[in-house]
Write a structure and sequence with these properties.
With about 250 residues, this protein is mainly β. It contains two helices and 17 strands. It folds into two domains: about 1-25 and about 160-254, no CATH class; about 25-155, Immunoglobulin-like (Sandwich), CATH 2.60.40.
Length: about 250
């Protein structure tokens, strides 16, 4: 099968990863020693993945303000083990804002850390463990607001191994654009399916074939066939059965 697109999005990687993540049930976390009416949930336990000489955990904290007045996040800590575990990461101020997604909120929020009554914030987290440094089997969080802190219950890091797949393309030089990172457009795209939020593109990559001089296209870029990736074979990354196909899409980029 050929995909006639100039930018090839590796949806198979995202789908396979999402299936693996979906096998882990949601991990609700509570603060038994805090009366602050805020819910903190890790929807999907992370799986450690290897890349660039390190192990990585990508996951999200969903926070919902259950009180009638705003809450302001001031600090966020990630700890290993149980409640006496070591500090792994700590964030404050702009470091928190940079990791926040505010679904449904105006884009011009003066401060994304201020969580209005009944509203939700999502913290995009990425923990990196260099070299052979072990990944903790349990993690907990301390979220500090202007007037109180909440310690979550320890979360079990998923034990299953990540999926191993083959290259989806062959030949030539391919640019891996918008690849796995904590702030890529793929990482932060939330989809609501059957009443539940999902990140189907957590590890998605856009593959762009480069030609002479590292250029992705030649001549008139408004013509699909002038892009180097046009007409290239997209290969199955694992054994499977094709159950349906659809050939009715065309992507047009400026």
């Amino acid at each position: 099968m050929r995909i006639r697109r100039r930018v090839l999005a590796l949806w198979i990687v995202s789908l396979a990863t999402s299936v693996a993540f979906a096998q882990s049930s949601a991990v609700p976390t509570k603060a038994p020693d805090s009366s602050l009416p805020v819910e903190i949930v890790v929807p999907v336990a992370p799986i450690a993945v290897r890349g660039a000489g390190a192990s990585h955990l990508f996951y999200e904290l969903h926070l919902t303000n259950f009180r009638a007045t705003p809450l302001e996040m001031t600090n966020l800590e990630v700890h290993a083990g149980d409640h006496d575990g070591r500090l792994l990461e700590g964030y404050s101020g702009q470091e928190i804002s940079d990791r926040l997604v505010r679904p449904g909120a105006p884009r011009d929020l003066p401060d994304k850390r201020v969580l209005g009554a009944g509203l939700r914030a999502i913290v995009m987290l990425h923990l990196r463990f260099e070299g052979t440094r072990p990944v903790p089997s349990r993690i907990w969080h301390r979220v500090t607001f202007a007037d109180s802190s909440v310690d979550t219950r320890p979360m079990i890091v998923a034990a299953q191994r990540p999926l191993v797949i083959d290259p989806p393309l062959r030949g030539g030089d391919w640019l891996a654009a918008n690849g796995p990172s904590n702030d890529s457009v793929h990482r932060r795209t939330l989809l609501l399916i059957n009443g539940e939020p999902h990140i189907a593109q957590r590890f998605a990559i856009d593959w762009i074939k480069l030609g002479p001089g590292g250029r992705p296209a030649h001549d008139d870029r408004s013509r699909n066939e002038n892009w180097n990736g046009y007409g290239e074979d997209v290969l199955a990354v694992a054994d499977g059965t094709v159950i349906a196909t659809k050939d009715a899409f065309q992507i047009t980029c400026p």
